[in-house]
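Re: weekly structure request thread

Next one in the queue (736 aa):
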Amino acid sequence: MTVIRSTEPEAVAFSAGERVAVLLPLPLSGAYDYRVPEGMSVEAGDFVVVPLGNRTVEGVVWGVGVGDVADTKLKEITDTVDCPPLAPESRRFAEWVAAYTLQSTGAVLKMMMSVPDALYPPKPITAFAAAPQFPEIRMTEARTRVLAVLADGLPRQATELAREAGTGPAVVKGLAEAGALRRVELPPATDFPAPDPNRPGPDLSPEQAEAAAELRASVHENRFHVTLLDGIPGSGKTEVYFEAVAEALSLGKQVLVLLPEIALGAQWLNRFENRFGAPPAEWHSDLTHATRRNTWRAVAEGRVRIVVGARSALFLPFHDLGLIVIDEEHENAFKQEDGVIYNARDMAVVRARIGDNAIALVSATPSLETLVNAENGKYRHLELPSRHGGAKLPEIRLVDMLADQPPRGRWLSPTLADELTETVARGEQALLYLNRRGYAPLTLCRKCGFRFQCPRCTAWLVEHRLAGTLQCHHCGFRIDAPETCPDCGAVDHLTACGPGVERLAEEVRLLIPDVRLTIAASDNLTSPNAVRELVSQVENHELDVVIGTQIVAKGYHFPLLTLVGAVDADLGLQGGDLRAAERTYQLLYQVSGRAGRGEKPGHVLLQSYMAAHPVMAALAAGDRNRFLAAEREARAEAGMPPFGRLVGLIVSGKDERAVDEASRALGRTAPQGDELVTLGPAPAAFALLRGRHRHRLLLKAAKTVNVQQTVRQWLARTRWPKKVRVQVDVDPYNFF
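Done, posted below.
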């Protein structure tokens, strides 16, 4: 096995008999050496098939083989794969991500080779045309119709031919067997129409046009630029960066747009198609395997000009990127928490630097990390401070729940209840935001105090009354909703504690009996098509009230939506997350921005039991800068990101004693010094998650410390049981 070596940009060719390093998409410590067989030549980046044990696997020629395996023991490459090579930029990116996240390069390569059968050309499509020499066969009415369809000379697939002829596939098959039809192999259909960059877009305001011109210029220069596009909700940020997309497309470059949750992109996709006359290629987990295979291959071959996708789209095999856009760059959905743990926003900046591309980070509430980089001159900062078309920002009011308490068993304050009723009566729409799925977050027995907890996680089971179940939102465990307490056997003593979106819907229906209402949460918005249906219903005014979780907090433009009510605005402030205040501000500001985006003014009511909290005060005053200044000062004093570095270690396993032993071993060998300190080990907030016991350690260091080298040395000098897994999270976002 060889140590991964930096990839050179130019192609490196290898001929028969030479030793080459082949990287496999496996979590191995390096590449394996193989010999190029007689009659074959390969280049760095080529996909090849190699033997591994008693099987064969696909890998990538990574460079010169420098391992210590004797030449006589080297195995030969079995075959080459008919696929465009992995570009030098992708190979360097894989190495960089692996080094930064302290993962193997093979594990990163596996993300790049996420659809293995896409490496092979698609099979030709079998179609049928009329035979030049017609045999003597018995004709029927159905056979006559089939031949009549083919009279235009165009071959058709069997299913298409049968459908046009109004018959079954068996008739087509019979004609082919009788020699009346001949088989024709057609190339696979191209499902990726090219967008038109010259198609005129909407009229831009002067400040939009100025920002668009700067973005276009950064793309045209064809070199690495990072631009923060910072605009309030409704300021037209999407239309502005569409101009940069148009510039990249006109230069023949590929474009990548990352959205935090692709299911939220229904309106985005419509806007893109209206602007460019063709839809983009999509990349997310809801696609069929065939679509993912075709998309991956088309990206590798350069047939796809633009991809919009979730964070994993960053690892597609682009060959000629010209622009990357990270929409809602502040979103923690860009952080991958399993496997190779990475932040797609930060890795996208690295990918742009490696490829010498322009990248735009877009948000109405940029992260503190991004803002500090802009202040330090690392990023260019473009601002859009006004809503497009003269629309005004909504009025934001705090509802002090200590003074304006709802009736017992209700969750809407009298103030919000009255505003909601009046909004619906005026024929306008409202959004009630509550970031809790289901009916209630906890069910307990009033007689004995028993609480329903997940047996596999340190979490309460959430009641989903519409489904009749109690569910764990972490591992998926569920049971039917019981009628008796499993601990004391009491009947009719189980009670739901706290509100979820289903319970809120129940309250709204009691308040406004004829209301047209829907719940928008990940439980029912399970696909882009489901989101498109919701968007259509709201746009067509088929709904009066939407009750949703954070899935509807951002990105949508509904002209008739004039009221937003945050039912439990304090919810995100609970816990010890260092970004809790920032995240809460971002989410509430984003959800507030859904109101008043049309001609009618908007109103926002934030129900809070902590009305004096700096987050609530900043939202009510509309003073983002004051909040960010206070947040920046607090982080700087504590040496927390972006003014310091953090690395988390998550120790987990099914054997609790082994996990405890491993975490104590890591604690004993933990690095300490003037510029760094190690906290822990301690049980994680979710001490049991998906059946695995969990402890955490946290390395806190100054920005000058090479934390990767520090952690690498720490792990090398520590021994722990093999059945325990130690995951490294560089720049952690969650501490559960």
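Residues 1-10 have pLDDT under 50 and may be disordered. The chain has five domains: 13-113, 125-186, 206-389, 394-436+499-632, 645-730.
Next request, please.
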